[in-house]
Each structure stands twice: as C-alpha cells, then as structure tokens.
Amino acid sequence: xxxxxxxxxxxxxxxxxxxxxxxxxxxxxxxxxxxxxxxxxxxxxxxxxxxxxxxxxxxxxxxxxxxxxxxxxxxxxxxxxxxxxxxxxxxxxxxxxxxxxxxxxxxxxxxxxxxxxxxxxxxxxxxxxxxxxxxxxxxxxxxxxxxxxxxxxxxxxxxxxxxxxxxxxxxxxxxxxxxxxxxxxxxxxxxxxxxxxxxxxxxxxxxxxxxxxxxxxxxxxxxxxxxxxxxxxxxxxxxxxxxxxxxxxxxxxxxxxxxxxxxxxxxxxxxxxxxxxxxxxxxxxxxxxxxxxxxxxxxxxxxxxxxxxxxxxxxxxxxxxxxxxxxxxxxxxxxxxxxxxxxxxxxxxxxxxxxxxxxxxxxxxxxxxxxxxxxxxxxxxxxxxxxxxxxxxxxxxxxxxxxxxxxxxxxxxxxxxxxxxxxxxxxxxxxxxxxxxxxxxxxxxxxxxxxxxxxxxxxxxxxxxxxxxxxxxxxxxxxxxxxxxxxxxxxxxxxxxxxxxxxxxxxxxxxxxxxxxxxxxxxxxxxxxxxxxxxxxxxxxxxxxxxxxxxxxxxxxxxxxxxxxxxxxxxxxxxxxxxxxxxxxxxxxxxxxxxxxxxxxxxxxxxxxxxxxxxxxxxxxxxxxxxxxxxxxxxxxxxxxxxxxxxxxxxxxxxxxxxxxxxxxxxxxxxxxxxxxxxxxxxxxxxxxxxxxx
Amino acid sequence: xxxxxxxxxxxxxxxxxxxxxxxxxxxxxxxxxxxxxxxxxxxxxxxxxxxxxxxxxxxxxxxxxxxxxxxxxxxxxxxxxxxxxxxxxxxxxxxxxxxxxxxxxxxxxx
Lengths: 694, 110
Prior knowledge:
Number of strands of chain B: 0
Distance between the termini of chain B: 59 Å
Shape of chain B: elongated
Number of domains of chain B: 1
Distance between the termini of chain A: 137 Å
Number of helices of chain B: 3
Structural class of chain A: mainly alpha
Order of helices and strands of chain A: HHEEHHHHHHHHHHHHHHHHHHHHHHHH
Radius of gyration of chain B: 18 Å
Strand content of chain A: under 5%
CATH topology of chain B: Helix Hairpins
Order of helices and strands of chain B: HHH
Number of strands of chain A: 2
Oligomer: heterodimer
Structural class of chain B: mainly alpha
Largest sheet of chain A: 2 strands, antiparallel
Number of helices of chain A: 26
CATH architecture of chain B: Orthogonal Bundle
CATH class of chain B: Mainly Alpha
C-alpha cells in the first residue's frame, strides 16, 4: 500500500456518503427498497471500513503527513500579486486520520440507531439522505488541506445541520431553531471568512502547509497575525457553540435525537475544535490566551445553566457546550493533544448520551401514545424516574457514559479530562492566568453534579408518573446495539493499557503538538525550547502538574457526584429549598443567563429596527422618487397625448371633414334618379347652345 | 274631301318650328316631371315627334328631295321599336321593384 492508494481510499470514503445522498434524494422515496435506509447505512459502513484501513496504514507505516494536491484554477500573472492560483487537495496526517475514524464510527452508529428511532417518519428517506450529506461534508472538513475547501465544507455542514434541525419543520419551534442555528453560525463564519482573506491577501495561498511556511518566513506577523488567528477561531466560536455564539445549540435540540447525537454533540460542533487544532501552529500567544478564556467562560456558563434545566436533551446540549469549552480551553492553554483527545473521547460518550436519551424519549413517546396523552412532554425529566427497571441496557450504557463525562477512572473521559486539567494547571502556573485552571476544576465538579442529577432523575428512584411507567419498554435491538458499542468505546482500553495514565494511550503517542511557526517574540516564553534542557518549561510543568491535577479533578468529580446523590437520590438536601434560598441565582441560571433575551433585545431588535427603517426608506423615499418620475412621465405623456389628439388629429380630421363636405355636396348631384340626370343634360345642352351659338 | 288650305299660304317654316319646339318642351316636361314610367315614355314619344315635325318642315321649305321625309319615317319606325323595348324594360322594372314610380328607383347612385 503506497501513499496514492491511501489518498484514493480516503477519497472514496469521502464520496461514498455523498453517493448515498444522491441516490436517496432522487430515488429514495419511491424506487429504493425500505426507502433506501439500508443503502445509505451500507455506504457509510463502507466508508467506515475504508477509514479504518486508512487510519491504521497511516499511523503505522507513514510517519510523515501525506498530501495530494492539484491546481484548481490559475489566473496567470496578476499585477501587484504575482502568479495567482488556487491549489486544492487532500491532507492525511495522524490528526485527520483519527478524525476520519471518529466521524465515520459515530455516523455509522447513528445511521443504525436511526433505523429504529425514525421508523414511520414521514420524511424517512430524506432524513437518511441528509445524514449522508452531512457525513460527506464533515469528512470534507477533516480531509481538506486548505482554507478554501475547509470554508466550503464548513458551510455545507452548516446547511445539513440546518436541514436536519428543521426536519420536522411543521413545528414552528423546529423551523425557528433551524434558522437560528444557521444565522448565528453565519456570524462566526463571517469572522472566519475575514481571517481567510487576511491569510490569502498576505500569504497568497490557502494551503495549510504553505501558510505555515509563509508565517515562519515572517510574511505575516505582529497584530495582523494575532487578528488572523482570532478571526479564524471565530469560525470555531460559531460552529463549536462557544460563548458568545453558544445560543443556537440548545435550540438545535428541536431536531431528531440521533441528529443531535451526530451533529450537535459528536462531530459538527467538534469541527470548530478540529479547525483550531488544524491551524494551531499559527496561533500567537495573544490569540491562544483569547481562545483559552473563551473556552473557560463557555465551559463555566454552560455548566451552570445545565444544572437548572429539566429537558433531558437540553441538559445534554449545555453539557456539550461546556465540554466543547473544555476542549477549546485546553487548546488555548497549550494542551493540544489533550484537547484533541477529549474531542475523540467526548464524541463517543456524548453521542452515546444523546442516543441513550433518544432511547428514553422513544420509549416515553410510545408510552404516551399508548395512554393517549398528547400534552405531556416526553423529554421532561420531571415525568421520568425509575426507568432503570424497564430499560436496563439503556440504563447501564447511560451510566458508563455518565461516568466517562464525569471523569471517573477506567473510562476514556478520565484520561482526556485529566490531561486537560493538567494542561490548564501548568498554563495557569506559568502564565499567571489562574482563572483558567480554577474554572476548569470547578466545572469538572459541576459536570459530575449535573450529569448524575440527570441520571438519577431519569433512571433511579420511584417513577413520577405510574401510568406512563407501565407502558415503558426497552428499545428495539437496532437502537440498543449502537448504545453498547459506544459504551465499549467509552472505556479506557480502547485508548491505552493503563487506565490512570494518559501518556500511554495511542492518541498521545501518535498525535503531536505542531511546532509553532509564530515569531518567537509573539510566543509564550515558557513554550520556547531552551538550549540547555531537552523539554520546554511548559512540558516540564505539565509533567509536574499531572498527579495533583488528577487528584484534584477526582476530588471535584467525587464531590459533584456526592452532592447529586445527597440531593436527588437520598433526599438529604432539598433542591427546592436551595433554589428558594438562592432565588435570584436560580432564576438567572434557569433563564440561561438571559442570553436569548439579551440578543433578542439588542441584535435581533436592532436588526429588525434597521430593516424596518430600510423598508420605510424604500417605501417612502425610493418608491417616492420612482413614483414621482412615473408621475412626471405620465403628465408629460398626457400633455403630448392631448396635443396629438387635438392639434395633430384636429388638422387631419379637418382635412377629412372638408373633403367629406365636398363629397357630400357632389353626392347630392348624383341622386340616382334618371329624371334629374335628364335635367342636367337639357341644362347642359342649353348652356352649350349659348356658348357655341350665342 | 276638300279642305281649304288657302290659309296655309301665310304659314311659314317658323310656325312649324315653333310647334315643334312647343311639342319638344312639352315632351321634356313630361319626361322630367312625370312619376310614372309610362308617362315618361309618352314624353319621349312627344320629343321624337317634335323632331319629326322639324324634319318634315325643313324638308318642305329647303330642298326638293325627300331625305327629310325619309328620316321622319325612320324615326317613326324607330319609335315603334323603341316603345316595344321600353315597355319591356318597364315591365321588367315592375317585376323587380314592384313599382313603376321612377322616383323610387334610384339604383344608379349605388
């Protein structure tokens, strides 16, 4: 197997889901068996097999990145520019190979789960077509080697996310959520676009490798480099739902639950983190600090909101935002591998959490249908409780995911979260930004608390609604199977042999922090290599922070779990009393920090105001001018018409009238009576006599 | 039977011409004023006969030959033929228009 074969296999793995999309969108509903779900799932499974082949070959046999390029357009020589051309291509390094597998694994499992979950849906075929389209776009983001196609696929995942959130578009809330997701993402994408334009204008290339080489040569530096880094990161802020653009993700839960698992938990929202990791080498110290703070603030805000939510999917949505904030914070604080590691582990257990919640919602929905209750919300955890007995597989897998997200040993989440916190710890110690590790540890506790709150309220205790509970059943095998697989993927041995040491995992072994290309004066002092020692100051601190960070994070998680059990399982602490005691805080959190209201009253109303003004301006001024000129033209043509009618036509008519008059006179002579003619003849003869004889 | 023609010696060409003219005028008058087509035909006869009188008068008072008489006889024959044709035309007019009132027959102006 050589490099070209690998590129070919990766391309096929990219195009297979797209082929499925084309087949399903054109022939799915009427022509294909089972509306084509098997075909699409089969294509994605094929893509999964190929991506495994690519992954193992890449990391085992090709230490260097594999890049395949082709010249897309060449504008020739352009003045003030040089030779202007755009080259596109595919880049397979360990990062993208890993991501390829992650996307395909989650996508395949979600496809399988959807066969059960979306059964009897009105737009069953179209749903699978869009899933395939999303998978294609996401793989495009992963495999691209340049900013140009990255942006194109970036928008394509936005579109497929929009289409899938609005899958049940008859519901107003769903179509609104779809629009909100798309528009909020556009805000971030605008920044991304400007960042790309800075890069294109100053380095004259889109290719990642060439961009980094150009920066290393000093073609782009100083404030502009920091600006480019932050602007590119703006794309990640939108897509990965970071503060302040995180508001779209909770609303996106209006989409079908498997979609939430695939797009809004595991893959698309992780695209922002992937982008940051991809462009990591060009981030200056200021940009990295900005990224770290955005991540920390996001993690904190989302975790606090998650505590008060009662909709099972919304809790998970805020937990997703919080975890994405973690990854971003980790990248910003220099723990590059840990951030990406957390992306991989989070993809598995968060997709599992969503699919598990999907399984619960599915059961609730059917139970509500049985008892003809169409008003109760099947997603509200206040109606659940005690589901453990009825849905054992869902419960135990859910428990594993919850342990993983809380960072309990023997799970994958422990390994990655521990590395992140160690990174934050080292960063805080060396840079003086102590807020970041503080938030990191606090959020670790919050995460454990709200996740166990969710688990206990849903599965433990007594059922709150007996009538629903009687009709709850475990989900069909096709839905349970992905849950089990994801639960296995959330355990430590998938990643490494030692459940307490992240450095033994293959992620740490094969993914390496790229060497920064930023000028030395724009880097953190502690990240620079010293001549005398082998490791940088940061790596040293990271190593030292490892054990204390691990103990501290375990303590925080244990504390969170303890409080969750005290409050919701054993009833030692009354949740209502705490909520009443901290009424303002509770209301503030319950209303999601009033972000929606804030945006509604500022940006949305301002936009509406501007649009209204523009409409008024259009109606009154522009239309006035247009109408005025129309009136003038009308007036002018009216007078011309009058002139035509009266003067020109009058002359012509007068002529005709005169002619007619004479005609009338002469016609009187020709009255057709023989006797009159005889009189004329006689008269004429007499006249002739007078002339010739007289 | 003897007729005293002595008085005729005072009669000259002028008198015949005057009679002819009067007859012609009466003929014209009849042709122009009568409504009935038959009466118009009669007017035409009058005109023809006034011409005959002129022919005869000029023949008597100018030359010795009889060419004037001949012309008059031709005219009489012609008048007979003409009367026959004209009455046939009038009959046809009546058949087509159901009237012989020539005021009502003004097809010529169409």
